[in-house]
From TrEMBL:
SUPFAM superfamilies: Multidrug efflux transporter AcrB transmembrane domain. The gene is secF. Residues 191-345 form the Protein export membrane protein SecD/SecF C-terminal domain. Belongs to the SecD/SecF family. SecF subfamily. Part of the Sec protein translocase complex. Interacts with the SecYEG preprotein conducting channel. SecDF uses the proton motive force (PMF) to complete protein translocation after the ATP-dependent function of SecA. It comes from Bilophila wadsworthia (strain 3_1_6). This is Protein-export membrane protein SecF.
């Protein structure tokens, strides 16, 4: 027996609410960008900025200000202290790496803490060090990986829904080459990715790769809003958050493809002489897949929230990013990616693009 969330198919006018959704998205993106600008850019963690991360555990609860005072004599640049758990015993200490080895950092920190907390011994559970050059290379590699993921998604969407594999593959080859040319000219990776993304959107629009353009805009929407919210929370961007963002890109894309598939099926079922308006087809498709969308989002959100609350400090930022992204990805799949199809075309345009090729089976008319 199948599971149904709704006893009857819903008839919600999602397309009619798209302008309100666009306004909300624009507001969240704007507030996030302003926050990032006021903070002087994104705050990078040890993985990308370079430095050391030391996980401490005390025998008894302590206050973070007391820890900062005890480490003041070491003059650690960029010192930041973050509490783990709820018992006040576990802390993560981050700072830019001084001219010390890992053993030197370990001994100096324990020595300073021993002076200030004589009756409350501390132990180092974990010590990680990343040099500034390695951190910069990791940051560039993460940005490049995210861009090429989006570029390959463009090829896949264009081929699957518009049967334009060759054009999309050629575009990807040109844009991939442009990335390396910009690198050869010495451009910073951030500007290379921004320029390549702008070219991807422009070329997709010029070539009328509407499905791919809708998916890309939805993915950029998810990443920008999620980064903005993390910046407002004061989170540092590290490899855990990048991994969560890449996971969200795949999650949001999967939801978008499900709706795109239903839109394609409903377009194929339209009569040639009098097809329904594209807005009605999009609304019908979203309502037909709404139960699946809610079930998938709810189960993913339960797992992500459980990890956020109970998973501990090591995985907290990953789980928090996932929790935020589930909401944002579901929102974009319904209110951003699909209505863009309406902005870029009409029913007959998509029917022509998806018109089936009639093949004659061998022997169908007596000739093999």
């Amino acid at each position: 027996m199948s599971l149904h969330i709704f006893s009857k198919q819903t008839k919600i006018d999602f397309v009619g609410m798209r302008h309100y959704a666009y306004g909300l998205s624009a507001l969240l993106i704007l507030v996030g960008l302003i926050t990032i600008f006021m903070n002087g850019g994104l705050r990078y963690g040890v993985d990308f900025a370079g430095g050391a991360a030391v996980q401490l555990q005390f025998e008894k609860p302590v206050a973070d200000e007391d820890i900062k005072k005890s480490l003041a004599e070491m003059e650690l640049p960029g010192l930041a202290i973050q509490q783990y758990g709820e018992d006040g015993r576990d802390y993560l200490v981050r700072f830019s790496t001084p001219n010390l080895t890992s053993e030197g950092i370990r001994s100096n920190i324990l020595s300073s803490l021993e002076k200030s907390f004589a009756g409350n011994p501390a132990s180092i559970q974990r010590l990680e060090m990343v040099g500034p050059k390695v951190g910069a290379d990791l940051r560039n590699a993460a940005l490049e990986a995210m861009y090429f993921a989006i570029l390959l998604i463009t090829v896949y969407i264009s081929g699957r829904f518009e049967q334009r594999w060759m054009i999309a593959a050629l575009m990807a080859a040109v844009l991939g080459s442009a990335m390396y040319v910009m690198g050869f000219l010495g451009m910073d990776m951030v500007y290379r990715v921004i320029g390549a993304l702008a070219l991807t959107l422009l070329i997709s629009w010029k070539l009328k790769l509407n499905y791919a353009l809708g998916a890309i805009v939805g993915l950029l929407h998810d990443v920008l809003i999620t980064l903005g919210l993390l910046a407002m929370m004061g989170k540092e961007i590290d490899l855990n958050i990048i991994a969560a963002l890449m996971t969200l890109v795949g999650y949001s894309l999967n939801d978008t493809i499900i709706v795109y598939d239903r839109i394609r099926e409903n377009l194929q079922n339209q009569p040639e002489d009098n097809p329904a308006p594209l807005a009605d087809i999009i609304n019908l498709s979203v309502n037909q897949t709404l139960g699946r969308t809610i079930m998938t989002s709810a189960t993913t959100l339960i797992a992500a929230l459980s990890l956020t609350i109970l998973g501990g400090g090591a995985i907290h930022d990953f789980a928090l990013t996932m929790s935020l992204g589930v909401f944002i990805g579901t929102f974009s799949s319904v209110f951003v990616s699909n209505p863009i199809l309406l902005l870029l075309g009409d029913t007959r345009q998509y029917m022509v693009a998806r018109k089936k090729v009639e093949y004659e089976r061998p022997g169908e008319h007596g000739v093999v």
